User: Fold these one by one.
Assistant:
Number 1:
Amino acid sequence: MNTEAGRQARFNQLAEDYGTDLYRYAMWICGNDALAKDLVQETYLRAWKALDKLQDVKAAKSWLITILRREYARTFERKVPKFTDVENVVVADDSELEPDDRTEIRLLRQSIMKLAPKYREPLLLQVVMGHSCKEISEQLGISKSAVMTQLFRAREQLKANVQKDGVTGNVHGLF
Amino acid sequence: MSMDFSEFLRRLGADPGNRDPEFLHARKSDLEFEQAAATAEAFEARLERAADLPAPEGLLDDILKISRDDASVASPVSGWRTRGWRPMALAASILIAVGAAGISWNMNRGWDSVDQYLAEHYHHDGDALIARSGVQAIGDVQALFARFSVEVTPQLAQIISVIKYCPTPDGKGIHMVLNTEEGPVTLIYMPETDVNDHEFLEFGGMKAMLVGLEKGSAAIIGTRSQSISSLYSFVHDSIVLAVNNA
C-alpha cells in the first residue's frame, strides 16, 4: 500500500495499536501527564514523517519506543526535572476499586516511581510495552544478561518497598 | 542437568511469563518451584494492574489528527522543524503592534501566578496574533530584544512571524508567533520573571511549557495536538544575554 490512503491507514493502525501504551510508558518515564502527551504527539509526528522507512511492521513498536526515548532525551539533554504531579495523575483512576486494592496499587505505583531509572525502564518496557528480554536488550543497548539482572532486581526492590511501606499502609497478604 | 532453585528464581524474577521449555520443565518438576512461580504470577498481575495507567481522553484523536493535518508532508524529519524558507524574516519595516504598552489592555494587572498570567494573556490576544501570523512583515527583531539586554539567534529570528511588546507579570516582555511545520506556536518572553524551568501548564485547550533562560524566562504555548517540548532546547539556546552584557 503505497498510496496516501494506505500510508494513512498504516499510521492509524500504529496509533490504535500503540498510542495508549506509549502514553503509559512515557508517563512512567517522565512522571508528568502533559509532557507524556507531548512526547507521544512528537513521537507520532516523527513517525508519520518517517513512516516510509518502517519496512517491517513487526518492528513498529520498538521503532516508536526508540523515537519516544530519543525525544525524551532531547527534551532534557541538560537536566531532568523532578515532577511532583505523578501521584495525582496515577491515582486518579482508582475510584471503582476496593480500598485495599487502591492502597495496594498506590503503594506499587509509588514504588515503581522510586526505582532507579536503570531498573524502572526495562521493567516498564516489559510490563507496559510487552517487550521480551531480548527486545529490551536491543532497545537499551545492553546485554540480555544485564537486562535479566535489572528486571530481577527491579522486582525485588518493588516487593521490598511495598512490604516495608505496606506495614504502615495496612496492606495484608500482598505477597 | 536440571535447573537449580536459585537459577529458577533468577529467571522467574526477570521474566515471570517465561515460556522457555527448560524453565517450564523445571517449574513442573518440584512443588517448591511451582509455588514460587504461582506467587510470582500473582505479584505480576498486581504489578500489571498498577502499571496500567489510564490514558487521557482524546489521546487517540489527537494522534490521528497528526496525519490528517499533515497529510501533504512526507519528508523525513531532520532536527527541529522550522520553515526556513520564510522570506520575510529580515524584512524592512518594524510592524510591531507596539502601540505598545499602549494597547488598551492594562499592563500590570498583578497576576498571582505565571499560570494565571499566561491563561489571561493568551485569552486576550493569543488567537488574534496567531491569525495574523504570516500576514505582516516584521523588522529588526534584535532591536526589540536589545531593550532587555538579550539577543536571539538567527535561527529563532527567521521563524518569528509576529512580534510585539506585551505585558508580563513583572513588566514588559515580548509576545511572538513562531512559524513551525506544525503550524504557528506562541512564544512569550518574560525578561524579569522567574519560572519553574520545564514546567507544563494547561489552560483553555492550550498547553504551555516554561523555559528558564539566562535572563528571565519564556513560555512556549501550543495546541493539544502540537508538540511543544521539542522546542524547549531550541528556545533555551536561542534567547541569550547580549554579547556586551554577557
Number 2:
Amino acid sequence: MAQTKTKSSGVTLLVATRKGLWQLHSEPTRRSWRLAGPQFLGHIVHHSVLDRRDRKTMLAAARTGHLGPTVFRSSDKGRTWHEAKQPPAFREGSGRVVDHTFWLTPGHVSTPGVWYAGTSPQGLFRSEDGGATWRGVDGFNDHPQRKAWCGGDKDGTPDGPKLHSVLIDPRDAKHLYIGMSSGGVFETTDGGADWRPLNRGVRADFLPDPDSEYGHDPHCVRMHPSLPDRLYQQNHCGIYRLDRPAERWQDIGATMPKSVGAIGFPMVLHPRDPDTLWVFPMDGSSVWPRVSPGGKPAVYRSVNGGRSWQRHATGLPPMQAWLTVKRQAMTADANEPTGVYFGTTSGEVWGSRDEGRTWKCLAAHLPHIYAVEAA
Amino acid sequence: MRVLIPNPLRSYTANAAIVMGAGKTLDELTADLDRHFPGMRFRVIDEQGTIRPHIKFFVNGAQKRSLDEPLSETDEVMIVCALSGG
C-alpha cells in the first residue's frame, strides 16, 4: 500500500502468518534485514497494518484454531498489544457469525481513530476508537441485496468468502470501495449507508451470465493514492483498470504472455506513479494449481497502466519453485527507488529495492504467509 | 464454582488454570467469567450464542452442549479446546 514517506529510510514489513506475526526491519539502504518476532505465536494472523496517520497505532486481526476471532491493538508500533474490547461481530439474532477478520484499513485522514475491517464471511465493520470497539456498517451488512451479491456464508473461496480491499477516497471520507470474493467490487458515496455494484467489463466466466452485474471474484483491488480515480484489480478472471468516472473496467491482462496468463492473487501499485504496478502471476489453468506458472516465479511490472508488461525474475529461483503469494502478501515501500516485497505460503519473504527488477530472499522458514505490509 | 481453564484461554486469567465463577446456567457462568476476564466469552461462544466448533464444556465430567445447562455452586466446569488441526 502507498505511504507518505518520500525520502530513503529504513523499512519495516509486517509479516502476518498462519502461526503468528513477525516484523522485518531494514537499514536505509535496504541491503540487510533483521527478523523480529514472533508475536502471537500460534495465532492465525490474517492481517496487520500500521496507522500511517499517527505512525504508532497498529492493529492485528487474529484467531486461533480453537478460539474465535479478535483484533489486537498496539499504540506503540507493535511493542505491546491489547485485545479489542468488542471485536467485529454480527448483530445478535442476525444468524451470521464472523469466522475471522480478514482485512484492516485505517480510515480517512480527517477521521482519526476510524478504522474499517472486512470479515469472512463478507461483513464490513467500523471502529471509531482506534480498533478498541467495532460496530457493523449496517448499510452494507443489512443491505437488502447483500445476500444476492455475496451468496451464502459458506460459499466462496476455500477458506471462506471474504470482504477485502476496503479503499477510502482521500478526497472524500464518505466515498469507499470494497472488494468481495465472491461478490465483486462495490461503491458507496454516502459513508456506507448504501452501496452499488461496480463490475461492468469484468469477466465472470464461472457464472451462468459472464456479464453479470455482481457475483465476481476480485482477488485484490487497489486505488492509487495520488490519482484516486484510478483503480486496478487482480481478478479471478484477469487484470483490470478503471478510470472513474467511467463505469466499465478495461481488461489490461490481455497483454500478458499467453503462457503465463493474467491470473494471480496480489497486486501492488507504485506509491507515486499511477501507471506503474506489479502483479505475481499464478497458474490458473485446469484445476487451478495456484502456483508460479511452470515452477518459474516472476513478477510482472507495467509502467504504462497495463498496456504492456515486463517480466522480472532476476534473483528468483529459475525453476522448480512453486510459489503461491496470497492477495495481501505483496506490498511496496515509499522509498526512491520503490521497494517491492512479497511473502509466500511456503514462508519466504522476497524483496526488491529497485522497483522489482532484481530480487533477494529476505527471510525463510516462516509459517504460511497471509499478509505483508510495509509499515 | 470451580472452572478449569484450558491453556489457550489462560492469557485472560493471568495463567490461572482454575478460577472461580458464578451462574445458574453455563450461559450465566460464561457471562460472569467475561466480567472478570474481559473478552474470554467471545473466544468460546459466538455472537449468536453458540458454542464455537472446537470448544467443549464438561460439567462434573459430562459434556454439555447447551448453554442453558443448569449449574449449582458445587459443580466443576471444565472448558476444553478440542483438536483443531495443524
